[in-house]
Amino acid sequence: MSRNSPVVGIVMGSDSDWPVMEAAAEALDEFEISYEVDVVSAHRMPREMIAYGEQAAGRGLKVIIAGAGGAAHLPGMLASVTPLPVIGVPVPLKHLDGMDSLLSIVQMPAGVPVATVSVGGARNAGLLAARILAAHDEELLARMREFQQELNEQATEKGKRLRARIEGAAGGFGFGTGT
Ligand SMILES: Nc1c(C(=O)O)ncn1[C@@H]1O[C@H](COP(=O)(O)O)[C@@H](O)[C@H]1O
C-alpha cells in the first residue's frame, strides 16, 4: 500500500468480504495508488456509514469502492451521501450465487449512480478507479496504456498457443486472424 494519503476508499460490509475485495487493493497497488480499507456497513453501523460518505471528499478521497454481499445496500447508500464516484462490487455469498448482491447494487434510481462491476469483480473495480484517476493524471494515463498493451500481448500470445495446439492436433488445418 502506498504511504501517501489515500485517494481511494475501499470499504465493505464485513471483514468476510475481504477475500473478494482484496483484488481491488492489489490492482491499486500495481498502479501505486494510495488507498484505505475499512468495514462500513449501512445495515449494522448506519451512522458511521453516513459519516464516512459525508466526509470522504473532504478527507481527500477521489473514488470509493464499496463491496457488499446479499442485501447489498452499502454502495448505493454511500452514493447518496457523497458527490464522489462510487464503484459497487457485488460480493457472492453462499446462497443465490451473488445474484442478490448484484441486483441490490446495480438497479439504482436515476440521479444516484453506482458503477457496478461483475459479481466478485473487485479487480475491475480497482482498475476502474485507476482509470477515473488517470483522467486527470498524465503519468497514470501512460501506465494504463502500458497495462492495456501488456493485456493485448498476453491475449495475442494465447491465440498463438491455441492455434499451434489445434493445428498440431488437426494435422495442419489453420484458422484465426493470422497474426
Ligand atoms: N450487505 C451488507 C451490508 C450493507 O449493505 O450495509 N452490511 C453487511 N453486509 C453484508 O453481509 C454479508 C455477511 O456479513 P457477515 O459475514 O459479517 O455476517 C457480507 O457480505 C456483508 O457485505
UniProtKB/TrEMBL annotation:
Organism per entry: Streptomyces thermoalcalitolerans
TM ranges: none
Residues that coordinate or bind substrate: 14, 17, 44
Keywords for the protein's UniProt record, in alphabetical order: Isomerase, Purine biosynthesis
Gene that this polypeptide is encoded by: purE
Coiled coil: none
PurE domain boundaries: 6-155
InterPro entries xref list: PurE_ClassI, PurE_dom, PurE_prokaryotes
Pathway: Purine metabolism; IMP biosynthesis via de novo pathway; 5-amino-1-(5-phospho-D-ribosyl)imidazole-4-carboxylate from 5-amino-1-(5-phospho-D-ribosyl)imidazole (N5-CAIR route): step 2/2
One Pfam family in the UniProt entry: AIRC
Cross-referenced Gene3D superfamilies: 3.40.50.1970
PANTHER family: PHOSPHORIBOSYLAMINOIMIDAZOLE CARBOXYLASE (PTHR23046:SF2), PHOSPHORIBOSYLAMINOIMIDAZOLE CARBOXYLASE CATALYTIC SUBUNIT (PTHR23046)
Catalytic activity: 5-carboxyamino-1-(5-phospho-D-ribosyl)imidazole + H(+) = 5-amino-1-(5-phospho-D-ribosyl)imidazole-4-carboxylate
Name of the protein this chain belongs to: N5-carboxyaminoimidazole ribonucleotide mutase
NCBIfam families linked: purE (TIGR01162)
Enzyme Commission number(s) of this protein: 5.4.99.18
Function summary: Catalyzes the conversion of N5-carboxyaminoimidazole ribonucleotide (N5-CAIR) to 4-carboxy-5-aminoimidazole ribonucleotide (CAIR).
Enzyme kind, highest EC tier: isomerase
Source species, domain of life: Bacteria
Entry's family note: Belongs to the AIR carboxylase family. Class I subfamily.
